[in-house]
Specification:
By secondary structure, the protein is an alpha/beta fold. It has 6 helices and 7 strands.
Amino acid sequence: MNVLFDGPEKATHTILLAHGAGAPMDSGALTAAAAALAREGFRIARFEFDYMASRRTDAGRKPPPRAEKLKPEYLAAVEKIGSSRSLIIGGKSMGARVASMVADELFATGKIGGLLCLGYPFHPPAKPEQLRTQHLADLKTPALIIQGTRDEFGTREEVGAYSLSPSIEMVWLEDGDHDLRPRKASGFSAAGHLATMAKAAATWAEAKLLQPSDG
């Protein structure tokens, strides 16, 4: 398993990020997000699920399996990075969903401190009835979901009607799409939204997560 690192080696918190269903760990969107988080002092580790890594080999393109099937790979990535309360798991879209599926198991055993989701896929595009939120209703892990207000996987109006755990905090980026990017006419910028995302993550981690010095 290959891992890409960004940010200071001795950061207070490391964030393990998994990619979305169709783009690799070094996609433009995930690279930009990792850089923004690193500028806020996080250590970032990005990895790829096997189906995506195989696209870099002669094996060629493989479709993503069901999210549930990827849970063992995410758990293996946690072990590779090194689990502790200073570790935050998460990812982009599908990667965030898989992380959310294993979060409580890891949090209960002291292996992670929190969950960070960048563009959570609350439902498939144009299929708002196919919710992916059942496990989020009683999530125990401190979680931060950062979402664009016009994300086709879950808009602010849609998400506002869901029953989500009180352990989940939402940050909304005006006019942001599934990559958190706003339209030029909105008056916002992609760089500005990523900076807001990273600052929100840093504020949340400092306020809500156990610091290493806390024991």
